[in-house]
Amino acid sequence: MKYDCQIVGDELLCAITSDQDLAAPVFCFSGMAPLEPVRGGTLIKSVGSYTEVQLPDLAKGKEHKATIKYQAGYKPANRAWKPLGPYLRVGGDIIELPPTEAGRRVPPRTEHSELEGLPLAPQPETWAPSEGVLEADGFAFEDDALSAVSALAQRQGMLFKGTMPIIIETGELETDAYEIEFTPQGVRIIANSYGGRFYAGITLLTLLQQGPIPCGRITDSPRFAWRGQHLDTARHYYEPDTILSLLDLMAILKLNRFHWHFADDEAFRLEVACLPDLWQKTALRGDGQTMPGLFSGAPVQGGSYSIETAKQIIARAKELNIEILPEIETPAHALCITTLYPETLDSTDNGAERSVQGYERNAMNPAMPKTWDIVEALITEIAEIFPFGHIHLGCDELAEDTWMSSPKARALMEQHDLQTTMDLQGWTMYRFAAFARSKSLRPAAWEEAAQGKNGGIGHDAILFSWTGQGPGLEAARAGYDVVMTPAQQVYLDMAHTSDPDDWGASWAAFVDLPDTINWDPVPDADLSDRIIGVQGTFWSEFTTQDDQIWPMLMPRMLGVAAMCWERDKPSIETVAALAGYYSVSSSGEIEISAT
Fold first, then answer.
1. Of 209, 207, 198, 187, which is closest to residue 149 (Cα–Cα)?
2. Are residues 339 and 458 in the same domain?
3. CA-closest candidate to residue 485, choices 460, 525, 519
4. Alpha helices for 462-571 (secondary structure H)
5. Residue 291 to residues 46, 49, 345, 395, 480: CA-CA distances in angstroms?
6. Which residue, among 12, 7, 17, has the nearest Cα to 97 in the 3D structure?
7. Which pLDDT score, from 0 to 100, does residue 452 have?
8. Which residue numbers in the chain have pLDDT < 50?
9. Which residues pair with 181 in a beta bridge?
10. 60 and 165 together in one domain
């Protein structure tokens, strides 16, 4: 079976040559957004980006061309926009087609540029060198935080434990702050928290991999308390070991919040006891499954995370001074819920709303009791699993005019003097957040949760500003704590460049390493107390194998880390030079090297 797809202008030209006669094959595939055939076939099914095209009979050895295009003005920007997981269905048989070569082609590792200061990402607050160097085969210590650093080093094949003594003292320092003094005879650490000792250890670990350590004194503390990285494990199931490798990388870069996005339209991957059907029927996605092959790299693909696995990931994160923020999606991005539990929808709603991903009826209706049963059950169980005391409630990309054709929603709106979709969403999120508070959870949500006539979600919620900085600044002025995660700077699923042979999304921008630091998270000093952090984000619509994540994240995570930690504007030249010191292999092994 021969198959090839080429980008021709705004269209995708797919050429199929069968090695046998095939009667009425159906061409099945997914993509970055909804697709439709132009020539060479007839659309017979479309669910979001998942598409089925009826082809004519194929004769052995004769090429057939089918032209497809993206709907709603989307244009293919690079290889990632070609059909994902293509296959033919012939009767009850599946014939897999050769996939597009997926993932970013890793450019050669650059030579180290000249670097002023220490080879550390992020850069320390101050460095005062003195005479001499510290020659060490590793360090000797008795401390739980340094033991966690040592365990990380062992997992990653790095040197850390040895005979050079470390003296640890307590000082009047803020959380996660530390000081280190290097002399030829040993190391002295001053810190006042587990995080401070841990990050001092990470600094030692990093410098030790690069040879003798210059003597001197480091004084260091983070700019933001929230230094995050998000991972979408709903669109693509990542093996637990991949998540653990990501946590190690975060720790090395002094990031301390892992935003675990295990629920979305396409799947719910946490094995909750309260709704077993939810994960049992959406963990696998593809041919013959409840959810079709959306963003899938094979006819059937996926998995789920047991509660035991989740607790192992939580425990590892805790050792690495990382808290995990779990996210459930409400009220939109809930196609898998509305599919399995149609009682969350008003059966008399005849609206034709469609989400930006092309989904119909993917938002739970707040006028339906089942919606509240499901959300409250999920919040209750997640409160018992995740010890951070926070929960992200979603609240993004609700389709315009959702619920406006629902008689039950209209009656609810009249009862509470609500006029618009955003008014009803704000009312709903306020009550979801109140329930989360009753379970001792601080609520969080995407920026849209601030909307609505009553001021949005409330309840001391944290909002994540993703479409740009503007909504975050408005939310901060309205009294919300805000984490800045603007797509144009820190969405690491965006393609690095405009090269059509590159890989990644492009709807927000092309985001290269300088873009991650070419902005100010707090452009208004009056809001410095309200903007509590910065977070990198990685969505997985086009990720079909775990190893594809690393060349997308790196080296841009260095820029995210610099924005999270460094108080002065990071130097583009310095961060670019540091990119030559850090790398991650296809298996998730981290290397820090001076050569």
1. 198
2. yes
3. 519
4. 470-477, 487-490, 513-517, 550-553, 556-565
5. 12, 12, 18, 22, 36
6. 17
7. 96
8. none
9. 188, 217
10. no
Cα 300 to the center of its chain, rounded Å: 22
C-alpha dihedral sign at 169, 170, 176, 177? negative
According to DSSP, residue 505 is labeled B
Largest CA distance in the chain: 80
CB 508 within 8 A of CB 490: no
Are 537 and 493 a contacting pair, CB within 8 Å?
yes
Instruction: Kindly list the catalytic residues.
Output: 397
pLDDT of 72: 87
pTM of the entire predicted model: 0.97
Is there a cis peptide before residue 99, judged by omega within 30 degrees of 0?
A: no
What φ, ψ does residue 204 adopt, rounded to 5°? -60, -45
288 and 396 in a single domain? The answer is yes
Asked whether 349 and 406 are in contact (CB, 8 A), the reply is: yes
The SS3 of residue 543 is coil
What phi, psi does 367 have (nearest 5°)? Answer: -85, -5
Domain that holds residue 76: 2-96
Give me the pLDDT at residue 593, please. Answer: 87
Residue 182 is encoded by which pair of tokens?
């290097």
pLDDT of residue 170: 95
Single-letter code of the amino acid located at 458: G
Query: Residue 165 falls within a domain, yes or no?
Result: yes
Alpha-carbon span 433 to 452, nearest angstrom? 15
CA distances from 18 to 2, 15, 25, 70 (A): 6, 10, 11, 25
Q: Determine the residue type at 4.
A: D
Contact call for residues 521 and 489 (beta carbons, < 8 A): no
CB-based contact 81:54 (threshold 8 Å) = no
Which residues contact residue 415 at a Cβ distance below 8 angstroms, ignoring those fewer than 6 apart? none
Residues 376 and 521 occupy one common structural domain: yes
Judging by DSSP bridges, how do beta strands 50-54 and 26-30 pair with one another?
A: antiparallel
CA separation for the pair 446, 226 (Å, rounded): 15
CB 73 within 8 A of CB 88: no
Assigned domain for 113 exists = no
Report how many domains make up the chain. Answer: 3
Q: How many residues does the chain have?
A: 595
